[in-house]
């Protein structure tokens, strides 16, 4: 499986992270089904290749100017932050992470092959793929009628190209280019699409099973990958394409070019658990896209906390015993069948909710089986449910601060203030406090309206 990876001249927004969660669920589902997966993800650390147009500013150059650092320093910093975000979301590490800058020779080899076969030509300003030599170019993934795209609204007509739809494999360096390499066609840098063909075929072979990306990769990126890969090898490139629909923020696609995008740090800064975002993504699935709202996040956070509470108390009740049901339990089968049905994660969560209802009963045998099933499902869900079972529930720093102010007010006999802070704990954090003769107790009951 090849995942079209990030461009690392900036932070990844939550829309990008949503698509990597979807790819992670796919890998975990395949492994849950007993298959072995080799997962490869590229890191696009060459700024020139993020856009097909020769016009406009190189995004890496923008990053360089903003940060006052070199391109590779910027790339490694944003790669590190991206991998940190992934870990917080329990997205498994790919087996291979390949950087574009480490694979320039492979790209040059592939371009040479395409020139030899007559699918590419050398022009004054670089090397282009001749789209007329690949029948069906731009139509393989059926995104929308090709005549609306191939002439290229965003691609300026370039007089060096034989046809407007031809795309760059190699570009001659411009004096200001920060990243440039030697090639048989002079110094320059690779086009946007060639990196993914060169790296995916290097690590997975000329034909491989699954290629994932966001729906914005459908065209031109993936159509170009298919054309140049299949033209070079004469073999089918990818057996199954998986495109994750957009995360929509207030009904607008969240793209960096539109400015003002949200990162995982923003979401965590609002007080949410990163895994609540993962749960929100699972609740949407990959095919419909995700409408991101604060209400949705509140509901996901409340759901995650409810799951954790239920699992924690069931685990306490069984004294840490879990037992595998005899034969395949109907709930486990339902869970697996819904995932096998086009990764229907919303319905898989509904199956998990059934196991949670069993965990919430007072029948110890039932609870032991429910816990086993939940931990088993967590191999796909990735919500750290085992950790939830054994975690001691503690107040966060923000919660503790309010809790302690209330304690102080109560001890000082300021009951109006203490009542107001009690209300704040309930409304802001979903924490109910009770005053007992042994002191103040607290319990998570979930936020009102969440
Ligand atoms: Zn791709
Ligand atoms: Zn790609």
Tell me what you see in this structure.
- It is a single chain.
- Helix 14 (397-411) packs antiparallel against helix 15 (415-429).
- The protein is an alpha/beta fold.
- The strands form four sheets. A five-stranded parallel β-sheet has the order 3-2-1-8-9. It has a four-stranded antiparallel β-sheet with strand order 4-5-6-7, covered by helices on one side. Strands 11-10-12 form a three-stranded mixed β-sheet.
- The protein has helices at residues 14-32, 59-67, 71-88, 104-116, 194-204, 218-233, 264-269, 274-284, 294-317, 330-340, 345-359, 364-381, 385-390, 397-411, 415-429; strands spanning 2-3, 40-43, 96-99, 120-123, 126-129, 167-172, 188-190, 208-214, 238-244, 247-249, 252-253, 290-292, 431-436, 439-444.
- The two termini are 37 Å apart.
- The protein is built from 15 helices and 14 strands.
- Strand 13 and strand 14 (439-444) form a beta hairpin.
- Residues 49-54 and 254-258 have low confidence and may be disordered.
- The relative contact order is 0.11.
- It binds zinc ion (2 copies).
- One zinc ion binds at residues 4, 196, 221.
- One zinc ion (ZN) is lined by residues 4, 196, 221.
